[in-house]
Amino acid sequence: MDIKTDYLIIGSGVAGLTLALKVADYKTVAIVTKKEIMDSNTALAQGGIASVFGALDTFELHIQDTLDSGDGLCNREVVEVVVKNGPERICDLIDLGVQFNLSTKESSHNIPQELDLGREGGHSQKRIVHAQDMTGIEIEKILVEHVKNHKNITLYEDHIAIDLITCSTRMKRGLVTTTHEDYCCGAYVLDRKNNKVKTFSSKTTVLATGGTGKVYLYTSNPDVATGDGIAMAYRAGATLANLEFVQFHPTCLYHPDAKNFLISEAVRGEGGILINSSGVPFMQKYSPLKDLACRDVVARAIDTELKKSGEDSVFLDISHKNSGFVKDRFPNLYKKCLMFGIDMTAEPIPVVPAAHYMCGGVVTDMFGRTDIHNLYAIGETACTGLHGANRLASNSLLEALVYAHAVAEESLKEISSPDFKSFPDSPVWDEVGTTDSDELIMVTQNWDEIRRCMWNYVGIVRSDKRLARAKRRIEIIQNEISEYYWNFKISADLVELRNIATVAELIIKCAMHRKESRGLHYTLEYPDRDDSRWQKDTIIRRQFLN
Prior knowledge:
FAD; 19% strand; flavoprotein; oxidoreductase; Methane Monooxygenase Hydroxylase, Chain G, domain 1; 546 residues; EC 1.4.3.16; L-aspartate oxidase activity; 3 domains; alpha/beta; Flavocytochrome C3, Chain A, domain 1; 5-stranded mixed beta sheet; FAD/NAD(P)-binding domain
């Protein structure tokens, strides 16, 4: 089955949906999402969007906070563009109907009423625009409503992308090839319900597949975060960067019945204090910013405390604040904690670090373009240069909004240009010679082993020995998956297993390459930052690592 569209957007988070709405008045759009449209990291985002609206805040302060967090690897030009475009992009959401929290003050900006601003770790000012503690789901809900009502957007739920389709152009004089360029022409996509592979032919393809959290045993991410876009781009030959910089959120709820539930950084921003099992605060030992230090510092501090004490968790305590304030500021967190028998207004919350955000990804330019023609990447899938070695809290939704707008403007110009290259229909999926599998235990066994291996050996604190062990094991698993993949018919579980194995291998290779500690990458043999040799991105693509 061949489906033709102007835009193929793979992923349904804030980046993909925002882009779809910005181009759909002019072109046809197909959105492929592997479960339901609301299943995304965006819907789980609690804190908010960082942007300059406060009377005491400036673009320069936000820029500097981002650069400081990125630990020497941010692209300053990108940081300036994203920060300075933030307020306008947030106003776009307000125009769509997103309801952010408002203060009681009179407005000093070109919006109906002044926004209520929170503060999070690493920020020098209050600048977090939020909707209670459920910002992501408020944004996602409004975007989904508009997407479902747009006549030019077709939504394909329960469809998982398998691989990108690339074409090559060759100009020959006699027998000599003078140029050779790769173009993306669409993707092969598995219809999960009908177990059929569909061929999507598109003029413009956009990877907006989100993060890689499920590569690790413990994560704040939903089950869909298996690094699909990064893995597909790598197999297609695109350039990737900085995959060693995996952000571990310091505070996920620790409870046997809780799964992937994040305790927002905003709790610390509102006065929450990290304590050990004896009730003693400990962050003053690790940073002058104490509980408002950046996430990498806090995650390593908790990891150190747990290793020293042998305890299962530390605790986040905001019970010293007025109970009415806590319930009003964090209604979702309060209700969720109560479900597990924890009253956050009266007792501390048990927390542990968990894999949270991938700061690296598919390399893009200022307009979201990858180095494969007609292929763009946005959101967590992309490496734009904004985050560097560590993402500043609440800059992720900001980046998604700004780059969705940039991709929309640039791609509409390109697709409408008389010089735009269009290609014939893509070949259909070939499964000749494959059979149905009766050995699904291979998938579940390797899935579990990859995630445990990554948590134990490629986690918050790394070493040469741990990384070498991880590399050897992942290589064995990769060989098993490859043999299985080519012999049996495709399934959604196999697609995801193949992708997390690929991403795991890439993270390990990048981590082994960087012989220093910087931002989110901390290694015991090289505990110091080394600007003379390593103040540069880690670039990786097939057969190349630098």
